[in-house]
Specification:
Distance between the termini: 32 Å
Shape: globular
Largest sheet: 10 strands, mixed
Order of helices and strands: EHEHEHEHEHEEEEEEEEE
Number of strands: 14
Strand order of the largest sheet: 4-3-2-1-5-6-7-14-9-12
Low-confidence stretches: none
Strand content: 25-35%
Mean pLDDT: 94
Number of helices: 5
Radius of gyration: 18 Å
Length: 215
C-alpha cells in the first residue's frame, strides 16, 4: 500500500503537484497541522494523527465532518507526531510512504523527521519529496539503483551509528569503497551523469538528497 503523509512544515511546491501525487496514493494521513494543506487542496485525510496543538479548530472540525479517523495523543509523549504517523502507517500495511511538508519552518523538526525515517521498520520505503527536492535513506548492506536526470545534484551523508563504506556509480565524482564520516563531507554536491545511478553501502546507513533538475 502506498501512502502520503502530510506534515506541518512549509509547502514549496504547486498545488497541482500535490494533487497529482495524492491521486496515486491508497491512503492519505496528516500529522497535526499537516491537515491544513489538505484542507486547502480540498482532500480530507483518511487519518489525522497528533496532539492537535497546531491544527486550527476550523480544520479539525472539517476533518471530523469529512469522516476522517482522528487519533489524538497527549502533548506529553515520547514520540513526535511524525513518528506516530509512521508507526500507524506501518501497522496498517503501508510500506511505501511519500512525505510532504517536512522542511522549511524549523530545522530541528526536519532533522527529527530524518531520525523518524531512520527509526522506522527497515521494510518501509519513506521518501521526503517536493517538486525540486527529494531526501531518503539507504540502509546498510544494500545495493540501490535509482533513476536520475543527467546534470542533477545529489548529496550523500552518513547517518546513524555506523560509518558507511560507499561505492557510487553514474556520478561525475565516483566513489569506490570510500568510508564517509562526519568530519569530511565527501558526498556533498555530486552530479548525475546519466539516467541511472548506483549506490552501494555497507557498515552504516546513508542519507541522500536529490535536487531535481529544472528545465
Amino acid at each position: 500500500m502506498k501512502a502520503g503523509l502530510f506534515l506541518g512544515g512549509q509547502y514549496p511546491s504547486s498545488n497541482d503537484y500535490y494533487s497529482r501525487r495524492i491521486s496515486k496514493m491508497d491512503v492519505i494521513v496528516a500529522a497535526d497541522s499537516g491537515a491544513e494543506k489538505l484542507r486547502e487542496l480540498e482532500r480530507p485525510p483518511e487519518i489525522l494523527v497528533g496532539d492537535m496543538d497546531s491544527i486550527s479548530p476550523a480544520t479539525l472540525e472539517w476533518c471530523r465532518k469529512s469522516g476522517t479517523q482522528i487519533l489524538i495523543f497527549p502533548p506529553e509523549k515520547d514520540d513526535t507526531d511524525t513518528t506516530l504517523a509512521i508507526k500507524i502507517l506501518y501497522e496498517r500495511g503501508a510500506l511505501e510512504v511519500d512525505i510532504f511538508g517536512a522542511s522549511g519552518r524549523r530545522e530541528d523538526h526536519f532533522l527529527a523527521t530524518l531520525f523518524s525515517i531512520y527509526g522506522a521498520d527497515a521494510n518501509m520505503k519513506l521518501l521526503i519529496t517536493e517538486e525540486n527536492f527529494q531526501a531518503g535513506l539507504i540502509r546498510s548492506d544494500s545495493r540501490t539503483i535509482m533513476e536520475a536526470i543527467e546534470g542533477e545534484t545529489w548529496s550523500f551523508l552518513p547517518f546513524g551509528s555506523g560509518l558507511p563504506v560507499v561505492t557510487l556509480e553514474g556520478f561525475k565524482y565516483p566513489l569506490e569503497g570510500q568510508t564517509l564520516d562526519y568530519t569530511r563531507p565527501l558526498g556533498v554536491s555530486n552530479v548525475a551523469t546519466g539516467s541511472l545511478v548506483k549506490v552501494m553501502c555497507r557498515g552504516g546507513a546513508l542519507l541522500y538528497f536529490r535536487w531535481l533538475k529544472e528545465f
